[in-house]
Structure formats: structure tokens, C-alpha cells
Design goal:
Blueprint: E1 3-9, H1 14-24, E2 31-37, E3 42-48, H2 51-57, E4 65-71, E5 86-88, E6 91-99, H3 102-111, H4 122-132, H5 139-147, E7 152-160, E8 167-172, E9 177-180, E10 184-188, E11 200-203, E12 208-212, E13 217-221, E14 231-233, H6 249-255, H7 257-264, H8 266-269, H9 283-288, E15 292-297, H10 299-316, E16 320-324, H11 325-328, E17 339-345, H12 351-362, E18 368-372, H13 378-381, E19 385-388, H14 401-420, H15 426-447, H16 450-460, E20 465-470, H17 475-489, E21 492-497, E22 515-519, H18 525-537, E23 542-547, E24 558-563, H19 571-590
Parallel strand pairs: 15-16, 15-17, 17-18, 18-19, 20-21, 20-22, 22-23, 23-24
Antiparallel strand pairs: 1-4, 1-10, 2-3, 2-4, 5-6, 6-7, 7-8, 8-12, 9-10, 9-11, 11-14, 12-13
Helix pairs in contact: 1-2, 3-4, 4-5, 7-14, 7-15, 10-14, 10-17, 15-19, 16-19, 17-19
Length: 607
């Protein structure tokens, strides 16, 4: 979950390193640091906190070779002594991931006289490479041999004062790519960090090691076998990762949802019928032969999977189970070779989801589908089928447009499976395609309610707790609303199926506990209205997101906001948008760091 940038170029790369870290700060912001080749020694600058502080401290530093890092703390508290880069002799290293055998390596190196000055697992890598250089005069070979001793996930970048024009990088389990340009060669955890210098990207595979100079790139496997990796021209632009006129990336990404949905659904909305080939050339035969669907995901992505379960079972008629990825591989499950395993991840590098996918495959479940926002990611590459959500880069830690585009992709999956199972006639198919085509317009209408939602946020931003309620396919939307509120405003929030109120949570309800209800005009509305009466009878204050035709009257203690239109099965996509806005504006009132909430990071690449 840390961010790495490295550069070997013919000009001063310090501004490139710092600007790259700014783009990667969503991956971690406990501390930041850089190391560059100086005139006589490695110059290292580290700071606790944000990249802006590092930028100030590094002003005036000039070098053509260097590495940089922004940290999300795992081993050791956020502090300057634990900040990367870590050094050993003339070596400096930055690292993303977790080295599982670092304790045994640390004990071995300590016994040989190496002194550790941090609590991190990364410092072990620096000392290990330095020790190997005593017998290997080649930095590339020393790093390669060191990596073969590491157990766990890593992406590393290494420089050596004695080899001032060279950067060595390697990856296993953590993302790392190269940027190729005429002025130099670069490496980073994410393409967004390198768009400032190039759009030509090389995506390293697990077990790859690369040597970069200003004019050359050499890639090999950890056994020393040379390999070639193709150059891809990134579809991203530098403007796509700029804030523009918005106050925060989260706000920008909330308002980008109509465009993100339109892009994601372009292949469907422009067609007269839905074809399995949307998911890959072999999708027709593979999806026709499934009898169950298992969805693996974490956090917000798991909520999209929970919503899809309602669609898949009611429309497609196929049983569906949703598992938290971090739990799935640590329990004994019953494998089913005819089961479709769906892995959902914004980054495609989510460690728990990737590990769960691999575990499912190890059990003989080869029918796999990735729903992901990053085409070149590990989860996409390791799945038989894929659907790329064209949400564009999502920088804010609290996911918004990635979630709604995941929902759109899962609804398309539902329609494809329903059609293959003979449960979708031409009239229904045409109706659903029309609804998908109109979805961006419908979301735009919801976004127009921002000023009213802002008023609501001011009403309860000073509360300590909040309760979210939903029923049926809107219960996962309530879960997502609660997650957003606690992620960025730090208000403790819980979500329940509204029918569960009387089974315990009602004991918490009083005048100081705002209750937010998702109340679409669907088959469960009358049941939900009864649940809301239970809240009012106990003095609870209600904030209800209803549809235009929901027959819920305004009254004392009941605040009502009506969405412009009811959207049937796709209603969850509309109803989550005001919950995103509510959380965003509550966080603004409280003055929290919206895009970089405490203790969190965007791309969760460690367990």
C-alpha cells in the first residue's frame, strides 16, 4: 500500500520523484522520503507526514538518479527512523509490500554485525543486498539473489552510490511498472506517477527484475533468464489525475460518475442486444456451464457483490454467494468446478482478493471472472474472463465511481447469465438496455440534489453515531453509506437490514442517533415504513432518501429527500450517490482530510 517512484535520466529527476509521490499519496501518507545519488554519497531526505513537507525539504537537491517512497505503516510506527528509503553502506532501498521472513533474516544479519536503525522489514533488504555485494560485484546480480531469499510480497527499487547511473527494480506480488522515454527511464507503483514524463509503460510480471539507466532497460527473471515485456501506451492523460476546479478528489469522482457509467456501459448501451463476448471470447461457453456464482471482494467491492447477489438470483435464477476475500481462503470450503468465481477489485492488485482468487483456482475452480478498473492488473491477468470498468483513475481513498461502475458491470453480468439460462426475453432485454443507456442521465439528476444534502450534513455532523437502514437489494447500499461516513468523517456508523431493528439495534436509538434510511418505492416499501415508525416511536430522528412516488409524508423528526425517479432493479446505483454526498459534506463540516482519511490507504496490497 506504499508508493514507489524511481528514475534514471539525463536531467534532474528530483522534481519528477516528488511530483510522482504526490500522485501516489493515495497509497499511503504516514511518511515520505527520497534518496538520490550525490557527489560523494547518497543524499537521503525523509519526513513524517505528507509529501508537501518532503518537497520543501528537498528544494535545491539535484541528481539524475534516485528513488522515492510514500509510506503506509506496517512494520513500525510512522516516524522518520521508519520512513523509507533505508540504507546500508552505499545502498538505498524503497519497498512496497511485506517480507514475511524478515525476522529470521534480521537475526542472521544482526549476528553478522549489521546494525538495524528502524523497526521495518525493508531495512533487512538493504542489508541483505549490501552483504551480497561483498561477493557479487554486480548490483543487478546482488539484488536478484537477494530477492530469491525473500518470502512475501514486494516491489523494490535500489540505488548504489558506486553505480551512480543505475536503478534496479524488482517485483513479486506488489505492483510495479516501468516508464520509457527519450530523456530517461522510470519505475512506479502506478502509471499516474509517470504520466508527467511518459505514457509508454512496461508492466513487470511477478518474478521480474529490471535494470534502468538513462538510455537502457534490461529485464530478467529471478533465475537470470532475460525476458522481453511489451510497451503499452497508457490511455490515461495527465489531466485525468488532476483535481481541476473541485475541492477534493472525492467530490470530483462523485461528479464523474455519469461519465464513468457511460464509458463503462458504452459497449452495451450502443447495442440492440447483450452478448456474452463482452466478458471475453470464451465467455459464452464458460457462462453457459455454471451452476453457482461465488463473488470474492473486500470493503466497498464486497458491497457491490452483495447487491449483485439480489440481481443474479432474482433475474438470472442462479445461486450466488458473496465472501469477504480475506476470510475465504482461511476456511475450509467445498469447491465446485462448475462455479463461476468473480473477483472484484478497483486496483486489481488487492492482496486479499488476489490471494482468494488464487486459492479458488488451486481448488480446481477455473471458471474465473475479474471485474476491475485496471486492465493490466494481476487479478485481470489471472482470470479467464474480465470486464474492465472504465471509471478512470480514482484517487480519493473512499471509493465512489469505482463502486457504481462495478454495480453496472455486475448488472450486465446478470443479464448475460439470465439470457444464457433462458430467463430474459427480448422485451425485458430491450427494457434493461434502455435503462442502462439512461443511467448516466438519471445519476446526473441525483447529483443536482447536492445543496439539499449539504444542509442535512450540517444537521448531524456533530453526532458521534449514526444508523443506516435498508431492505432487500438496498441493504448493501446502506452498508456502503455507513462505510463512507465512518471512513471520511470518523462518525461511528452501522448499517442493518431494517427488519433487524427490533432484534437489538433499536436499543441504541434516541434523539442523538440520526437514522438514515434508503427508501425506494419497491415491493418492500410498506415493510420499511413500519420499521421507520419504530424509530420515531423511540424518539429517533429520521433522514429518508425516498423516490418521487414513495408515499412517506414529511413530519416532525422525519426529513425527506426524494430522488427524481424510481429506477427499478437499478435503483441501488442511484440511491448510493446521495449517501456519498452526505458523507462528503459531513466530513467537510467536521474538517477532516477527505481524500486521505487517517490510518487508511487506497490500494490495499498487503494482507
Amino acid at each position: 500500500m506504499c508508493g514507489i517512484v524511481a528514475a534514471a535520466a539525463g536531467n534532474n529527476i528530483v522534481p519528477v520523484l516528488v511530483e510522482g509521490l504526490k500522485k501516489l499519496e493515495y497509497r499511503g501518507y504516514d511518511s515520505a522520503g527520497l534518496a538520490v545519488i550525490g557527489a560523494a554519497t547518497i543524499e537521503r531526505i525523509r519526513s513524517v507526514g505528507r509529501v508537501a513537507e518532503l518537497e520543501t525539504e528537498s528544494a535545491g537537491t539535484i541528481s539524475s538518479t534516485g528513488i522515492a517512497h510514500t509510506r503506509w505503516a506496517t512494520h513500525g510506527v510512522p516516524s522518520e527512523r521508519n520512513a523509507h528509503p533505508h540504507v546500508s553502506g552505499s545502498i538505498a532501498v524503497v519497498h512496497n509490500g511485506i517480507i514475511e521472513n524478515y525476522e529470521s533474516l534480521r537475526a542472521e544479519l544482526s549476528a553478522q554485525g549489521y546494525v538495524f536503525t528502524s523497526d521495518t522489514d525493508t531495512e533487512t533488504i538493504a542489508h541483505l543486498i549490501e552483504r551480497l555485494l561483498h561477493s557479487e560485484n554486480d548490483l543487478f546480480t546482488a539484488v536478484r539473489l537477494a530477492c530469491r531469499q525473500l518470502v512475501g510480497a514486494y516491489a523494490i527499487a535500489v540505488i548504489d552510490q558506486r553505480r551512480p547511473e543505475t536503478v534496479i527494480v524488482a517485483r513479486e506480488g506488489s505492483p510495479l511498472l516501468l516508464g520509457i522515454s527519450e530523456t530517461g527511464n522510470y519505475a512506479a507503483s502506478d502509471a499516474s506517477a509517470l504520466l508527467q514524463v511518459t505514457r509508454n509503460m512496461v508492466y513487470l510480471e511477478n518474478g521480474d527484475i529490471a535494470e534502468l539507466t538513462a538510455s537502457t532497460v534490461r529485464i530478467a527473471r529471478l533465475d537470470g533468464t532475460p525476458v522481453e515485456r511489451p510497451v503499452h501506451v497508457s490511455e490515461l492523460s495527465a489531466a485525468a489525475v488532476e483535481l481541476g476546479h473541485y475541492r477534493h478528489y472525492m467530490q470530483k469522482e462523485i461528479f464523474e460518475q455519469p461519465e464513468a457509467l457511460a464509458n463503462t456501459l458504452e459497449i452495451v448501451s450502443g447495442a440492440k442486444s447483450i452478448q456474452p463476448g463482452i466478458f471475453g471470447a470464451d465467455a459464452g461457453a464458460l457462462l453457459a456451464d455454471i451452476d453457482h456464482i461465488l463473488i470474492l471482494a473486500c470493503g466497498t467491492s464486497s458491497h457491490s457483490g452483495m447487491t449483485a447477489r439480489y440481481w443474479l438470483e432474482s433475474i438470472a435464477g442462479v445461486p450466488c454467494t458473496v465472501e469477504i476475500a480475506s476470510e475465504y481462503r482461511y476456511r475450509t470450503s467445498v469447491p465446485n468446478p462448475r462455479q463461476l468465481v468473480v473477483a472484484i477489485s478497483q486496483s486489481g492488485e488487492t492482496a486479499d482478493t488476489l490471494a482468494a482468487l488464487r486459492h479458488a483456482r488451486s481448488l480446481g475452480q477455473s471458471k474465473t471472472l475479474a471485474i476491475c478498473n485496471v486492465p493490466e492488473s494481476a487479478i485481470v491477468r489471472e482470470s479467464a474472463l474480465r470486464f474492465i470498468t472504465r471509471a478512470g483513475p480514482e484517487i480519493g481513498v473512499a471509493s465512489t465511481k469505482a463502486f457504481t461502475t462495478q454495480l453496472a458491470a455486475l448488472f450486465v453480468l446478470t443479464l448475460v447469465v439470465a439470457k444464457l439460462r433462458g430467463r430474459l426475453d427480448e422485451t425485458q432485454e430491450a427494457t434493461f438496455i434502455d435503462q442502462l443507456r439512461h443511467l448516466p442521465v438519471a445519476v446526473n439528476k441525483v447529483l443536482a440534489l447536492e445543496s439539499e444534502i449539504e444542509g442535512w450534513a450540517r444537521r448531524f455532523a456533530d453526532k458521534q453515531h449514526a444508523l443506516f437502514l435498508g431492505r432487500g437489494r438496498h441493504y448493501p447500499i446502506a452498508l456502503e453509506g455507513a462505510l463512507k461516513l465512518k471512513e471520511i468523517s470518523y462518525i461511528h456508523a452501522e448499517a442493518y437490514p431494517a427488519g433487524e431493528l427490533k432484534h437489538g439495534p433499536l436499543a441504541l436509538v434516541d434523539a442523538d442517533m440520526p437514522v438514515i434510511a434508503v427508501a425506494p418505492h419497491d415491493e418492500l416499501l410498506e415493510k420499511l415504513k413500519s420499521n421507520l415508525q419504530e424509530v420515531r416511536a423511540r424518539g429517533g430522528e429520521l433522514y429518508v432518501f425516498a423516490d418521487a412516488d414513495s408515499e412517506i409524508p414529511h413530519s416532525e423528526g422525519v426529513h425527506m429527500l426524494r430522488l427524481p425517479e424510481h429506477y427499478g432493479q437499478l435503483s441501488p446505483i442511484l440511491h448510493v450517490v446521495p449517501l456519498q454526498l452526505l458523507s462528503y459534506h459531513a466530513a467537510l463540516v467536521k474538517g477532516t482530510d477527505v481524500d486521505k482519511p487517517r490510518n487508511l490507504a487506497k490500494s490495499v496490497t498487503v494482507e
